[in-house]
């Protein structure tokens, strides 16, 4: 699989699923109450396997949570270890 640099992880995951002819990824947003705030994360299910994002995010960064989960799923599909976190993530 060859990708353009800068392509969002969600798009890359969609493309990978089409290439290997499995169903479309299904994302789920999850939350965890932490003191007076809520932390948000995501999980994605592909081909019956559910993968969790590595990090928890502020509510304004929900897309980052989905990107994180998509990266984990793409890593799972490619059989390699996860890359180090990007500096552009808006985590806690």
Protein model, in words:
- The chain has 92 residues and is an alpha+beta fold.
- It is 30% helix and 25% strand.
- It has 2 helices and 3 strands.
- It has a 3-stranded antiparallel β-sheet, with helices on one face.
- The protein is elongated and about 45 Å long.
Short description:
The chain is of the alpha+beta class and 92 residues long. It has helices at 9-19, 62-78, and strands at residues 26-34, 37-46, 49-52. The termini are far apart.
Strand order of the largest sheet: 1-2-3
| Distinct helical segment count | 2
How large is the share of residues in beta strands? 25-35%
Rounded mean pLDDT is 86
Q: What's the main sheet like?
A: 3 strands, antiparallel
Helix percentage: 25-40%
Low-confidence stretches: 83-92
Structural class: alpha+beta
List SSEs in N-to-C order: HEEEH
The N- and C-terminal alpha carbons lie at a distance of 32 Å
Radius of gyration: 13 Å
Protein name: DRBM domain-containing protein
């Amino acid at each position: 699989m060859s990708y353009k640099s800068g392509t969002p992880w969600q798009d890359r995951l969609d493309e990978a699923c089409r290439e290997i002819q499995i169903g479309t990824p299904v994302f789920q947003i999850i939350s965890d109450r932490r003191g007076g705030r809520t932390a948000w994360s995501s999980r994605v299910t592909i081909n019956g396997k559910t993968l969790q994002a590595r990090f928890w995010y502020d509510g304004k960064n929900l897309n980052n949570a989905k990107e994180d989960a998509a990266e984990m799923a793409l890593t799972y599909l490619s059989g390699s270890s996860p890359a180090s976190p990007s500096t552009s993530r808006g985590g806690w």
